[in-house]
Each structure stands twice: as structure tokens, then as C-alpha cells.
Amino acid sequence: MKVLVAPDSFKGSLTALEAAENIKKGIKNFDSEIEVDLLPLADGGEGTVQSLVDAAGGEIIKKEVKGPLGDKVTAFYGLLREQNTAVIEMAAASGLPLLSEEERNPLKTTTYGTGELIKAALDKGVEKIIIGIGGSATNDAGVGMAQALGAKITDKNGGPLAFGGESLAEIKNIDLSTLDPRLKKVEILAACDVDNPLYGKNGAAYVYAAQKGADQEMVEVLDQNLRIFNQVVKQELGVDSNKIAGAGAAGGLGAGLAVFLGAELKSGIEIILNSLDFESRLEGVDLLITGEGMLDGQSIYGKVPTGAAERAQAKEIAVIALAGSLGEGVEKVLDHGIDAYFSIIDRPADLETIMAASPKLLSNLSEQLMRVLSI
């Protein structure tokens, strides 16, 4: 029997690799002869760099860049040397976790540091860059990112446009001729699981800016400034960025990556599965065990368990999902390739206790599942 173990991280307690290793431990406790292949996964959000580095035998490289408010922060990216690919989480340089509640202000925050991470990856000679764009603290439409890569984006006075969503009101000209020329030789994929337009009631500001520190007045200003940005982009580059599916992701970084760098916006889990050649890893597999910290009705929207399960189902491979907890609507995953799901919790306990015990709980559950399957 061959089992492919391909979970996401159990956030707050286990990385994807640690989860996979504990599932393997349980399987081997039952029968050491079972062949177990480990493939830690991610969906383009937090943990994507670590998961791909673990899965592909890459390395994590730290880099000092400008943080969301322009101060220096130590960020990171992953380098998959065999694939000549870099993996970036924009949140590592421009994300909400880098700011306190009081510091959050999308009128001022910038994606400049994300651009610096892209430049650092180019310095390694990569041919492909995968960018996860979740968790942003910004609403600057990727202008800061483009400036860090050499674009000349100027205001009405001819000077460099200042950082932040507030400054988009002053944007006048966009010159991409000075962009780092190495970008033309690199494939850029942005992991984007939303289809929000750049502006409007379903756009970047109205849907996401509040969690980044914006009040209602700021939301309206930011939305108006994104409209101004789009007008200049249409005039200067001949592109209506508002029509790009996912343009509003990460405060408009989705639009910026597409119009400035020619990036392709795709489902995060699809990017990851394709990058890891998931189809080949399914060859000869009898059972796929996947999972994540919380399995619920939202898991059908671009998350690891159902993304992996649907591909396994197409090859008529059985799929079991393991989770730290099961939430509302979890039964929906049964229509997306998962044959059965289980929670690791074996008795009433507080969250802290469960998270601390999660390695053992995951191992124990995996062993019991194999015992049931052997009957």
C-alpha cells in the first residue's frame, strides 16, 4: 500500500511538514511496511514559503527590506534551486503582522519591501517567481513594489510618488521603461484566490481596508484614489486594471503585479500543486491523506484539502482529511473529492492544550485510521 500525505499547516501548532511527519508516524506505528510519501502543501497564504521549501528541498533566505511604513524589517523568501524558482509571501515585507493595531494605516503603508524581495530573487538568477499576496497591510495598488523595481511613477510635480494609498490621488505619469530588465525573462505567478475588482463596493478599499486600519472616511478616500490610479494606468499603459479578476487583492497589489510586471493571477493551490508536479506524486498512490487546522465550509474555496482531493479523485484515489477542528458547513468538502474527514480532538480540552498535544493527537488518529482501513 502506498499513502501520499499532503496536508497544509495546522496554523499555530504545526507546519505542513510537521503535520505530515506526525501522520506518517501514526501510519508506521501500525505497519512499518506501508510506503509513505510526504508532500507538505500550502495555498499561497501564510506558510507557503516554508511548505514549498520543505517539499522541494529549498532554502529560506532572509533579507532586510522596507516594512509597510518604510522602516527596516527582516523579511524572507524561499529559493528552490532545482526549479530555479523563488517563492515570496508579500506579508513578510508588507503585511499586517508587522504592524501594531495603532500603526495600521492604509493611507501610508507601502508595498516597496515586496518589490525589494522580488529584486533579491532576481539577483539569484531565478526564472520563475511565485508570490502569495495574502495578509497585506497596504492599499497602494502595488506602486511601491514597482518603484522598488525601477519604475518611474511620478506625481503632478514630476517627483517620485510618495508611499501609501493616500498619494495615489497625486499620480500623474507611469514610466516602465526603467523597470529592472530581468523581469522580462521571468515568469511571475501571483497566488490570488479572490476575484474582487480594483475599486467599487466589491473592490480593495470597501472590502478589505477596514481590517488594515481604515475608518469609513478613509475607505472612501482610498477607493477614489484607486479610481484615479486606474485612469492614469489606462492613459499611460492602455490597460483597464479594474477589469482584471483579482485586481483588488492585497489592496490592489493584484492589479499592480498584472499591469506593472505582467504577472498571471491564479488560484494559489493550483499554482502550488503545479509547481510541485502533484500529478506525478499521485502515481501508484492508493490513499491520499490531507488536512488543515480548521476544516469547514470555506475549505472548498481554494484550500489545500479540497484542491488536492479533487485531483486525487480524478485518478480514483481515496482521500481522507484530518483537521484540528471541524467547522460549520464542513460536509460540503464531501462534494469536492474528500471521502471522509476527522478531527484529531479525542476529549474535551481548551484550545491551548489541544494545540500543544496536536503532534500526538495527529499521530494517534492516523494510526487508528489505518487500523480501520485494514479490517
Automatic annotation (TrEMBL):
Regions crossing the membrane: none
GO MF: glycerate kinase activity
Annotated Gene3D superfamilies: Glycerate kinase, domain 1 (3.40.50.10350), Glycerate kinase, domain 2 (3.90.1510.10)
GO terms of biological process kind: organic acid phosphorylation
NCBIfam families linked to this entry: glycerate kinase
Protein name: Glycerate kinase
Family affiliation: Belongs to the glycerate kinase type-1 family.
Keyword entries, A-Z: Kinase, Transferase
Taxonomic classification: Bacteria, Bacillati, Bacillota, Clostridia, Halanaerobiales
Domain of life: Bacteria
Database matches in InterPro entries: Glyc_kinase_flavodox-like_fold, Glycerate_kinase, Glycerate_kinase_RE-like, Glycerate_kinase_sf
